[in-house]
Amino acid sequence: MQTDKTPPNMKILHLEDSLVDHELTVRALQKTGVPCDVLRVESLEDFQSKVREVNFDIILADYHLPGFTALDAWDLLQHEPAPPPFILLSGAIGEPAAVTAIKIGVSDYLSKDELPKLAQIIRRAIELHAIRRARVKSDHDLALSEKRLADFAEHLQFTIENERAAIAREIHDDVGGSLAAAKFDLAWIERHSSNPEVTEHVKAASDMVQHALEASQRIMMNLRPAILDQGLVAAVQWLAHDFTKRTGIKIAMQTDHAKADLPKDVLLAAYRTAQEALTNISKHARCDVVTIEISDVQQFLTLEIKDNGPGLMPIDLNKPNSFGLKGLHERAKSVGGWLDVSSRPGKGTSIVLSVPLDTAQSQTNQEVN
Ligand SMILES: Nc1ncnc2c1ncn2[C@@H]1O[C@H](COP(=O)(O)OP(=O)(O)OP(=O)(O)O)[C@@H](O)[C@H]1O
Ligand SMILES: [Mg+2]
Fold it and tell me: How do residues 216-229 score in pLDDT, each as one tens digit?
C-alpha cells in the first residue's frame, strides 16, 4: 500500500512487439526493486495516444518494429510539449544507427543482452534529462526577462523623448514667449525714456533678457532639436558644429546617400547615438581628430563616430554608474538594429550604429513629437 511518503511508481512506456522481450524487461526491472508500472505498446498509433494520455517518466523502445523503427516514434515524440527521456532497448542495431540515434538526442542505447544494467541506465537518463530540462527552462526564463528588460528600456526611452519634447514646447511657449514680450517692452521703455540712468538700466536688463533667450533656445535644442525635422545629416551637422564650438576639435563628416525620410524612431536613435558618442569624446577622449560617417546605401543605415583618443577597455563598458553606451545598445535594438563599440588602447574608439531600414519598425503607433 502506498503511504503519503512513498514515492509514486515510476511510469514506463515500453515500445516492444515481442511479448517475451517485454516480460524479460519487466522481470529485470522488478529485480532492481524499483517500483514501476510498465505499459507495452507495439504500434505507432498506440505509442502516440499513450504518450499524450500519460506523463511517463521514461520510454524504452525496441529499434526494429513491424513497419517502422524507434526513430519514427522519436520523431512523433518531438511534437509533444515535454517529452520524457527515450532509451533504445534493442537487439543489435549496428553502430551507424546507434550513432544517429544519440546524435538526434535519444537519451541512451542498451542492448537487450545487458538487461541487468537497465536500472542504472534509466537512472542516469532521468538525471541527465532533468538537468537538460532545467537548463532549457532557465534559458527560456532568461530570454523572457531580457525581453521584458528590452521592452521596459524601449518604453522608458519613448517616455523620456516625449517628456523632453513636452518640456521643449513649454520652454518655447511660456519662457520664450514671456522673454520675447519682456524684451519688446524694455525696448519700448528705452525708446521713450530720456533719463540716461533709466536707459542704462534698461539696456542692462535687455542684455540679460537676450542672454536668457539664447539659453532657453540652447536648452530647447538639447531637449528636442527642431533641426531633426530637416533630417539626420542636418541634425548631426548641427551637433558637430556645436561640439567644435565647445571643444575646439574639428569634425570631418562624410555622408553617403543619406536620405531625409528615415522613420522617426530610427532618426531619433541615430541622433541620440551621435549625441552620446560626441559627449563621451568630450568627456573621456583627449583627441584631436573626430570623424563621422553616415550612409544609408542598400536599405541599411550606418552611423560611425570615431576618435583618435586613448581608447577604452572592455571593463569600461561595464562601469556600474555608466549608462550612456548601455542605453545606446538598447535604443539600437528597439529599432531592429545594433551597436558596435570597437577600441584598442591608444588607438581611439569607434561607435557604429547599424539599422536595416526595411525591417526597422517605423514608429506609427508610438509617435514621438
Ligand atoms: N570615446 C571614448 N574614449 C575613451 N573612453 C570612452 C569613450 N567613450 C566611452 N568611454 C569609456 O567608456 C565608459 C562608459 O561610457 P558610457 O557612455 O556608457 O558612460 P559614461 O560616459 O561614463 O556615463 P554616462 O552614463 O553619463 O554616459 C566611460 O566611462 C569611459 O571610461
Ligand atoms: Mg557617456
Answer: 988 888 888 888 88
Ligand 1 in contact with 323 (CB < 6 A)?
Answer: yes
- For the CA of 285, the closest atom of ligand 1 is 3
Q: How far is ligand 1, taken at its centre, from the CA of residue 336, in Å?
A: 23
Amino acid at 145: S
**Does the beta carbon of 336 lie inside 6 Å of ligand 1?**
no
123-180: pLDDT as tens digits: 999 999 899 889 999 999 999 999 998 888 888 888 988 898 889 888 888 898 899 9
Interatomic CA distance for residues 59 and 11, integer angstroms? 9
* Rounded-to-integer distance, Cα 351 and Cα 312, Å: 11
> What is this structure's pTM?
0.65
Q: Is the dihedral of CA 84, 85, 89, 93 positive or negative?
A: positive
Ligand 1 pocket check for 305: Cβ under 6 Å: no
